[in-house]
Automatic annotation (TrEMBL):
This is SpoIIE family protein phosphatase. It comes from Verticiella sediminum. The lineage of its organism: Bacteria, Pseudomonadati, Pseudomonadota, Betaproteobacteria, Burkholderiales. It holds the Pfam family SpoIIE. Residues 337-389 form the HAMP domain. One of its GO terms (cellular component) is membrane. InterPro entries: Bact_Sigma-Reg, HAMP_dom, PPM-type-like_dom_sf, PPM-type_phosphatase-like_dom.
Length: 663
């Protein structure tokens, strides 16, 4: 067998390790190229859609706002009613010049319904006051004017080539109407269509098609001018110039659904897959609110990613290979400098110390540098056996072990505390504080005090149009177990609301009980482990002036400051050993009354001179004293009185109180 030095063995091992890592990595990368291409194509389409949305919204929104302000001007209306009045014309054209300088392309147009005169200004003072031509109802090219006045829309935006003026622009047309709604004419401005298209992101990228279309699907901007639906804003568009004509039936349906989603959330682009011109592509579209348009970008992953891969993938692989080779060389140099050279120095020193003074029996060793070093130190180690050094060695080992154990315990404690703090943030994130504030404003308050950092109580809010569903849930257990139960219960509640509907609290409780039993059916939990949960739900039907209540061991209190009403819940909790039956209780929604849902942690809190529970009677007296006050003052009063009663006694249970009223 050939003799290899330690240097040769190190280099061979490093090269073999690189080979073992690189071969599977190369296979995985090769298999993941398609996935990577799809993900990058999708992300690129969404980013370009948002960029095009923002690019078009800013200038067109400004242009639209200026045009509407000009159309509503008193000078504009007065001149259109008295077009032959020199003083009215002077005031109008003075104001029109100010408007022209403010708009993007410094042009404007205005047309009179009474005379049919069409005025267009591009800064030529002499030509501005003379009509460029006279509109006619029988001329197809003038249909935009009469369609705009006939439409009920406050404005329309058209891509319209004007054959007479030999210009093609994006026209913003705003009807000018008298105070009584009588149409007087159409005013507006324009933006050069060429600069509009040049501004679309992705237009020059291979495999990327930016498209702009309106809510009817009429194409307003496209790299292919033949596909644009000219003059679609006022009279609609034919089927040949819509985005649907570029898609198959399934793709058209998908685009209509995506349009609805994008309109609900204009801040995000909606992504879908569709066959555009017969090729499967990633399509992302974003809604432009002020224009009621959609900015879409279609990315053909095969064409786009192929160009991207040529630009960066193969250079990246070459750079990776060069980097690995450089790392191999650096590792070899480091092995020589940091391992082999010190070992040779230690070998020389050990032989000098071992010269004739130490004798040890050496086991069979290898013939490389490590073997020589072992033999040299073996000869020296035979005489290093004093009891002092042995004792010091043991003390050091035991001290190190103890220190390591202490460090491990401290690290574990820190990790546990950090995990519990993080769990508290997660638990607070599921509480609907923001939704409650948005819906109820100052007409509610919540007292939520877990016994530990996290707890088993949480409260519920679900908006149903002008109505809403409110509720509390008290899961068995405290701390981390209780918090985990709240996650399970919250998922069950959301499922039950979706299944039963928010207007049926009893149905939600029954459905929630069934879902939780199903979730834990195969868990084989010990019988001593409590998994039950108290709950109460109240559906507020504002239109009917009533509330619907159902509870599982959590009662509904109501008070007007003079009287207190307590509506009893079902006796059995959710997940009880025997399944409970829950019914809806319908009550009138009284504006002067305040309603309360409270967990047993409040009522069972020990305090006072004898350490007794706070109790129902004391709680009802608290309601009488404070129900007539504003909710914010009630919250302070409840917190203050509970703290005073509790004193130095520890908190027994998680405490949650939800109060609300409707004026």
């Amino acid at each position: 067998m050939a003799h290899f030095s330690l240097r040769g063995k190190s280099l061979a091992a490093l090269a073999f390790a690189c080979l073992i890592v690189l071969v599977p990595a190369a296979v995985i990368v090769w298999l993941g190229v398609d996935r990577l291409r799809e993900e990058f194509g999708s992300a690129h389409a969404q980013n370009l859609a948002i960029l095009n949305q923002q690019h078009m919204m800013a200038p067109l929104s400004v242009e639209l706002a200026l045009s509407r302000q000009w159309a509503a001007s008193a000078a504009t209306r007065h001149w259109l009613r008295n077009e032959s009045d020199p003083e009215a014309a002077r005031l109008f054209f003075l104001e029109a010049e100010t408007y022209r300088r403010a708009v993007h392309d410094q042009t404007y147009s205005i047309s009179s319904l009474a005379s049919g005169n069409y005025y267009f200004s591009d800064g030529d003072a002499l030509a501005d006051r003379q009509p460029r031509y006279v509109l006619s109802p029988t001329e197809p090219a003038d249909a935009w004017f009469y369609d705009t006045l006939a439409s009920n829309a406050e404005y329309n935006v058209n891509v319209n080539p004007d054959r007479i003026l030999e210009i093609s622009r994006v026209w913003i047309n705003v009807p000018v109407r008298d105070e009584d709604g009588t149409p007087l004419g159409v005013a507006g401005s324009s933006i050069n269509l060429t600069s509009f298209l040049d501004g679309l992101r992705g237009r020059d990228e291979d495999g990327v098609t930016p498209i702009v279309f309106d809510r009817m699907g009429a194409i307003q901007a496209h790299p292919d001018p033949a596909l644009i639906a000219y003059n679609s804003g006022a009279s609609g568009s034919d089927g040949e110039h819509t985005v649907y004509s570029l898609l198959d039936a399934d793709g058209a349906d998908a685009v209509r659904t995506a349009m609805q989603q994008a309109a609900r959330d204009p801040s995000h682009a909606v992504e879908l897959h569709a066959a555009l011109h017969g090729e499967r592509q990633h399509v992302a579209l974003a809604y432009i609110p002020r224009l009621d348009w959609y900015a879409a970008v279609a990315v053909d992953p095969a064409r786009w990613s192929g160009n991207a891969m040529r630009q960066w993938l193969w250079p990246a692989l070459g750079a990776l290979a060069a980097t690995l080779l450089a790392l191999l060389l650096i590792a070899a140099l480091l092995a020589e400098r940091l391992v082999l050279r010190p070992i040779r120095r230690l070998q020389t020193s050990a032989r000098a110390v071992a010269d004739g003074r130490y004798e040890v029996e050496l086991p069979d060793a290898s013939d490389d540098e490590i073997g020589d070093l072992g033999r040299a130190f073996g000869e020296m180690a035979r005489r290093v056996r004093s009891h002092t050094e042995d004792l010091e060695c043991r003390v050091r080992e035991r001290t190190l072990a103890l220190q390591q154990a202490n460090d491990a315990m401290s690290a574990a404690q820190r990790q546990i505390n950090a995990s519990i703090d993080y769990a508290s943030l997660i638990q607070r994130a599921i509480l609907p504080d923001r939704q409650l504030t948005q819906f109820l404003g100052e007409q509610h308050f919540v007292m939520w005090r877990p016994r530990d950092v996290v707890g088993g109580d949480f409260y519920i809010f679900h908006q149903d149009g002008e109505n809403c569903l409110l509720g509390l849930m008290d899961c068995a257990g405290h701390g981390v177990p209780g918090a985990l139960m709240t996650m399970l219960a919250r998922a069950a509640v959301d499922h039950a609301i979706h299944a039963a509907g928010p207007a049926d609290p009893a149905g939600i409780l029954a459905r929630c009980d069934a879902v939780m039993r199903t979730m834990l059916a195969d868990a084989h939990l010990p019988r001593a482990l409590a998994t039950n949960a108290d709950a109460a739900l109240v559906y507020i039907d504002r239109s009917a002036g009533r509330l619907v209540y159902a509870g599982a061991r959590i009662d509904l209190y109501a008070s007007d400051g003079a009287d207190v009403q307590r509506h009893r819940a079902a006796r059995r909790a959710l997940m009880d050993r025997r399944q409970g039956a829950y019914t809806n209780l319908q009550l009138p929604l009284r504006p002067e009354w305040t309603y309360y849902l409270v967990t047993d942690g409040f009522l069972d809190q020990a305090g006072g001179e004898r350490g007794w529970s706070f109790g129902d009677e004391r709680f009802e007296a608290l309601l009488r004293r404070n129900a007539g006050r504003p909710p914010a003052e009630q919250a302070e009063a409840f917190t203050r009185e509970l703290a005073a009663y509790q004193g130095n006694n520890p908190q027994r249970d998680d405490i949650t109180l939800l109060s609300f009223r409707f004026h």
